[in-house]
Amino acid sequence: MKVLVLGSGVVGVTSAWYLAQQGHEVVVLDRQPDAAEETSFANAGQLSFGMSSPWAAPGIPVKAMKWMFQAHAPLKVRPGTNPAQWKFMLSMLANCNEKSYSINKSRMVRVSEYSRQCINALQDELNLPFEGRRKGLLQVFRTEKQVADAAKDIKVLQEFGVKHTMLNVAECIAREPALARVQDKLVGGLHFPDDQTGDCNLFTKALARKCQEKGVVFKFNTEIKALVRDGDEIRGVQTDHGLETADQVLVCMGSYSPFLLTPLGISLPIYPVKGYSLTIEVNKDEDAPQSTVMDETYKVAITRFENRIRAAGTAELADFNKDLPAARRETIAHSVSSLFPKGGKMEEAEFWTGFRPMTPDGTPIIGGTRYKNLWLNTGHGTLGWTMGAGSGALIADLISGKQPDIDSDGLAFSRYG
Q: Is 342 helix (H, G, I), strand (E, B) or coil?
């Protein structure tokens, strides 16, 4: 079959790879001049398989109220007149209960753990150059309450067999020696030995080249205008270069997916939650993180590449606003400096922003639609890099009519009724 993949971020390119591996003719369309030029460009860098959790959690509404009055809050809201913003917030609030949290986290961990297996197999086969490290992830706690709150996550981790260990301060330092300078700020941590790090942009570009070697055609600088419907099927995709036809169409357009689907009567509950990152040159190896350190207080992930640190955080609800406010930079810089005061050249850091395609329940949308040849692999939020390989393999199996390696129940758009 000929399959059109719309979008060449990490989710689109991994999907293209697995579809090509199953013998399909694959064409990837993207408006950018190369792969991974938008949300996959400068994200946090951590492959946080074990830490995959929905933002909609019990207690978040109360925390959100407190964050409104904090200078370095992990959540910022710019209230606007866009109904989608208010609908997203209300839907997210509806998921902030124990039952929904458990269901949503179990779905996310299912995809993430599968993705860990997939990316390990990919790397063993292809040895892609993306500055990857397999040294785990350390979530650091600054308060005893944070330690207590981790208990509900541990229950789900145990259910899915995700390796994890609660650490005291000395054990945290053993994992990340540079934390010895700030040990008085910490009370403990949660370590995920199977989590990894790596530059998503480098990975996606390298995998795109491997796709091309397999015969996948990438049509860059191509603006996707609309899906062309013919009854209960999609006949093709209208672009600024003409009509592209195919047997199957897969949408992997992140935050922009709803614009394409709404005219077809499919209202995707995806909102562009804005995130920021700093890319920092390392000063000395011994003063920098060795893998990913997740600062639970500020919700900032601090990740080590070879000679760079990538720090990312902040969830901002501001629609498609690409501004780079100094205050957001200061929040991320504050987290990095408080844990790794001599880690990198902060004054020279590159500041970036991107739109995370968030669903209210935190779970990506992977599966079919009411149109028999239209498929979705989108809405991964902050976890597109983490879930990319697994969701790509899963959707390729579903499109091919094969039995997937994991249960796809609860992942499709149909879960929204």
A: coil
pLDDT in tens, 21-68: 999 999 999 999 999 999 999 999 999 998 898 989 888 888 887 777
**DSSP single-letter state for residue 181:** G
pTM across the whole model: 0.96
Which phi and psi (to 5°) does residue 197 adopt? Answer: -135, 165
**Pairwise CA distance, residues 95 & 91, whole Å:** 7
Q: 86-123 as b/e, with b when 16 or more CB fall inside 10 Å? A: eebbebbeebbeeebbbbbbebbbbbbbbbbbbbeebb
Distances (CA, A) of 211 to 34, 164, 190, 195, 399: 13, 34, 37, 25, 18
Strand partners, 317: 77
Q: Which residues pair with 368 in a beta bridge?
A: 375
Q: What is the end-to-end Cα distance of the chain in Å, rounded?
A: 30
CA distance 38 to 17: 19
Dihedral-angle region of residue 35 (phi above 0 means left; psi in -120 to 50 means alpha; beta otherwise): beta
Query: How far is 95 from 8, CA to CA, in rounded Å?
Result: 30
Tell me the pLDDT tens digit for each residue of 147-170. Answer: 998 887 788 788 878 899 999 999
Binding residues for FAD: 3-17
Annotated binding site: 3-17
